[in-house]
Specification:
The complex is a heterodimer of chains A (463) and B (279).
Chain A: E1 12-13, H1 16-19, E2 27-29, H2 32-39, H3 49-52, H4 60-68, H5 72-82, H6 86-92, H7 114-128, E3 142-146, H8 150-161, E4 165-169, H9 178-181, H10 190-202, E5 206-208, H11 219-224, E6 230-233, E7 239-240, E8 253-255, H12 256-265, E9 282-286, H13 290-301, E10 305-309, H14 321-329, E11 333-335, E12 338-345, E13 351-364, E14 370-383, E15 386-389, E16 393-394, H15 397-402, E17 427-429, H16 432-435, H17 440-461
Parallel strand pairs in A: 3-4, 3-6, 4-5, 6-17, 8-15, 9-10, 9-15, 10-11
Antiparallel strand pairs in A: 1-2, 7-16, 12-13, 13-14
Chain B: E1 2-11, E2 14-20, H1 22-27, E3 33-37, E4 45-53, E5 58-64, H2 68-74, E6 81-82, E7 84-89, E8 100-106, H3 109-122, E9 126-133, H4 142-147, E10 151-156, E11 163-164, H5 167-176, E12 183-187, H6 190-202, E13 207-210, E14 226-229, E15 232-235, H7 236-239, E16 242-244, H8 250-257, H9 261-271
Parallel strand pairs in B: 8-9, 8-12, 9-10, 10-11, 12-13
Antiparallel strand pairs in B: 1-2, 1-6, 2-5, 3-4, 3-7, 4-5, 13-16, 14-15
Helix pairs in contact in B: 2-9, 5-6, 6-8
Classes of the chains: A alpha/beta (463), B alpha/beta (279).
Chain lengths: 463, 279
């Protein structure tokens, strides 16, 4: 008999007032009993609506049925047929907009907690894994992957499983891309990211850190001189945008990228790190996406009183509902319908305050999102000694400016077809480098698709 | 890993190291920089490439001991390995079409000026070098500059080396004596570059300044190295590190470079035994 409870099994969490002072993971995961009980809420629908909501089409009812029977390793095998990073996606996917939004149980009550179940299955596997992976038989062909974020890792993993000799090139000193430098420890523990990467290495994937493709080596050199037959570009969208308002270059003003990189990659919050960070006593975060929530919650943990400034209303916040909820619980304040126009300095060139104009909503734009206009003459001044700009990122120009014949969009995104093929033969691309800033799961899906197309390409070429 | 192949003290505060980094050496050009970490808990610091040997696969860095990371680096020896060494980053110095250039360096900035002077000299450009130091003890690369220029002027604050005075005094004298430079390239402390640029603006001599701001990744990702050039925000790591000196907002750059002064002082005190109490 299915479990007809209208509510999801709650997942244990650190108490808000405890967790807003540490960087340990907020959510603690299901126990076996909770997982089985939650799995029994699934009605195992024949037409599997949840699968249509999953960018990588995991056979969700099938893996949940295994969990309900306590066969967790079987469930893991089903998930990993479609997903390369289940422990990551179980934590950071916007399930409420994807699989869970299609769940029949959601029509009356809460949908099945698919994300939490995925996380449980992956964590349980990782806890028991002995690292004995069967190395695929080599087919003797070399493929290169640029960037070790979600799309690159997914692409590398699939190619390695097919027997390719894969090298991943990473510009930073640590693999993982946004999973390492962007998403904070309390949302995605770095040990989990590294475990996934170790898994890829066990499959034979080589990772060359400290290599900036476009500078250290070019795509043409990789293909012409180093024998890589096909290349995947997963270089992400890492270039921070600024508002171009007065005072934005004052001391104490960060891009969210810089603020989060100092904390997540450089571990500036730890006492033994040589990298400095200044979250001040009063921090203002500008923007309303997941990255803004991450930055705000980091600043809070570093001891600042934090206000998020967003020009629309709460309803339009692009961040996941869960992140907004967590931020609020942790004591982060929100100033809605508020838009910065100038940052005021102290005598020493530090941030003193930020001046914002009041906004109101008007008719929606072509994407259906409400536009805003300033209410003339209405300003507020918010005191702050740290300002974090989190208003989006765009693709890095390094690769497009050093790769001849690689067509890009006006805004910088690499042009690629559905399989990831770019305007250059043998060169594929996917993830944020193609779409602009999006989600981990979409990037992962693009990496997997490209891996399949690269396999076809290399097979045909070598016929 | 990136092995230290050679280490030499150029003066009590400045050290030269040759690092094994074949991929970087293969692509390096004068004007570009690298980012290094000494160890896995270390910070990432940018250093301009002082020289490179493509055949041996080595890259030379010259650094002044100013903070905890450079202090730690200075404690490393031949045979030790740096944890990370990334590059070459930034754009190379533009040298096309130049006929006569004045290279103006200050302090450890001279180390960065040297590869540019050398390249120009080898290209057949007439190179004048003006190098400023606080005193005789701090003079570096004297022989190298002599070999890479047709005129080499040393200035010192106390007159113990070369002439007493500032690099701007020497530059002004040369310009007024009729030397017609089609470019001045200046590398050194921000305050020195600011005054060099002020001077050359008066005389209408195109000038580029090499900036070395605080940065983390060096690939355009953090924006920490941003500066204002001609009213626009630029990233030193990808748009630079060299910019039109007449357009740089040096006052802003100076304020930004002091962002972490307190932290750095404390970190340096914790690293350097000199500052530690006697137990």
């Amino acid at each position: 008999m299915p479990n007809m409870s209208l509510k999801k099994n709650k997942m244990a969490e650190q108490a808000p007032d405890v967790r807003n002072k540490n960087f340990d993971e907020v959510a603690l995961g299901y126990t076996e009993e909770q997982a089985i009980d939650e799995a029994k809420r699934c009605l195992n629908c024949k037409n599997k609506p949840c699968v249509t909501g999953c960018p990588v089409q995991i056979d969700i009812p099938a893996f949940i049925a295994e969990v309900a029977e306590g066969r967790f390793e079987e469930a893991y095998k089903i998930i990993t047929k479609s997903s390369s990073l289940p422990a990551v996606c179980g934590r950071v996917c916007p399930q409420e907009m994807q699989c869970e939004s299609k769940c029949v149980r959601g029509a009356k009550g809460e949908p099945v907690a698919i994300g939490r179940l995925e996380r449980f299955v992956a964590d349980r596997h990782n806890a028991l894994a002995h690292g004995e992976v069967e190395k695929p038989v080599s087919n003797g062909h070399k493929a290169a992957v640029i960037g070790s974020g979600p799309s690159g890792l997914a692409c590398a993993g699939d190619l390695a499983k097919m027997g390719y000799d894969v090298t991943v090139f990473e510009a930073l000193h640590l693999a993982g891309g946004v999973l390492s430098y962007g998403i904070p420890e309390f949302r995605l523990p770095k040990s989990i990211v590294q475990q996934e990467i170790e898994g890829l290495k066990a499959l034979g994937v080589k990772i060359e850190t400290d290599t900036v493709v476009g500078k250290t080596v070019s795509i043409d050199e990789l293909m012409d001189e180093e024998g890589f037959e096909s290349v995947f570009i997963g270089s992400g969208a890492g270039l921070p945008r600024f508002m171009n308002i007065k005072g934005e270059n004052l001391n104490g003003v960060y891009s969210a990228n810089e603020f989060l990189t100092r904390i997540n990659l450089m571990k500036a919050y730890k006492s033994d790190s040589s990298t400095p960070i200044n979250a001040g006593t009063k921090a203002v975060v500008v923007g309303g996406g997941n990255v803004a929530m991450d930055a705000a919650r980091c600043a809070k943990r570093l001891g600042a009183d934090v206000t998020i400034v967003y020009r629309r209303t709460e309803k339009e916040l692009p961040a996941r509902a869960e992140e907004i909820e967590h931020a609020k619980e942790e004591g982060i304040k929100f100033a809605f319908l508020t838009n910065p126009v100038e940052i005021i300095p102290t005598e020493n060139g530090w941030v003193k305050s930020i001046i914002c104009e009041k906004m109101r909503l008007t008719e929606p734009d072509e994407r259906g999102r409400a536009r805003t206009v300033a209410i003339k003459g209405e300003f507020t001044e918010i005191e702050a000694d740290c300002v974090i700009m989190s208003i989006g990122t765009s693709p890095n120009p390094l690769i497009r400016s050093t790769t001849k014949g690689l067509d890009t969009q006006k805004w910088g995104g690499i042009i690629a077809d559905d399989d990831g093929l770019t305007s250059r033969e043998g060169v594929y691309a996917g993830g944020d480098a193609v779409t602009g800033a999006a989600t981990v799961i979409l990037a992962m899906g693009a990496g997997k698709k490209a891996a399949a197309a690269m396999d076809e390409y290399m097979k045909n070429k070598n016929k | 890993m990136f092995e230290i192949l050679e280490k030499k003290s150029l003066n009590p505060f400045v050290t030269m190291m040759k690092i094994s980094a074949p991929r970087v050496a293969k692509k390096a050009e004068p004007g570009q920089f690298i980012i290094l970490r000494t160890d896995s808990a270390g910070e990432r610091i940018p250093l301009t490439i002082a020289d490179f040997d493509r055949e041996k696969g080595s890259v030379t860095i010259i650094f002044q001991i100013v903070g905890s990371t450079t202090e730690k680096l200075n404690h490393m020896n031949v045979g030790d390995c740096l944890c990370d060494f990334v590059g070459p980053l930034g754009k190379a110095t533009e040298t096309e079409g130049l006929k006569k250039v004045a290279v103006v360096g200050g302090g450890v900035g001279c180390a960065i000026a040297y590869p540019v002077a050398k390249k120009l000299h080898e290209m057949g450009v007439e190179v004048h070098v003006i190098a400023g130091f606080r005193n005789k003890e701090l003079v570096i690369l004297e022989n190298e500059f002599t070999a890479a220029s047709s005129k080499f002027v040393i200035m010192s604050d106390d007159g113990s080396a070369g002439e007493k005075g500032l690099v701007t005094d020497a530059l002004k004298k040369l310009i007024e004596s009729g030397e017609k430079y089609d470019r001045v390239i200046t590398i050194g402390p921000l305050i020195m570059m600011k005054f060099v640029c002020q001077l050359t603006k008066e005389y209408n001599v195109p000038t580029v300044a090499s900036m070395n701001p605080i940065m983390i990744d060096g690939t355009g990702m953090c924006g920490g190295c941003r500066l204002t050039v001609g009213g626009e925000t630029k990233f030193a790591c990808v748009d630079g590190p060299e910019f039109d000196g007449h357009l740089i907002d040096f006052d802003e750059a100076m304020a930004r470079s002091a962002s972490y002064k307190t932290f750095e002082r404390k970190a340096h005190e914790n690293t350097c035994n000199l500052f530690k109490g006697v137990e």
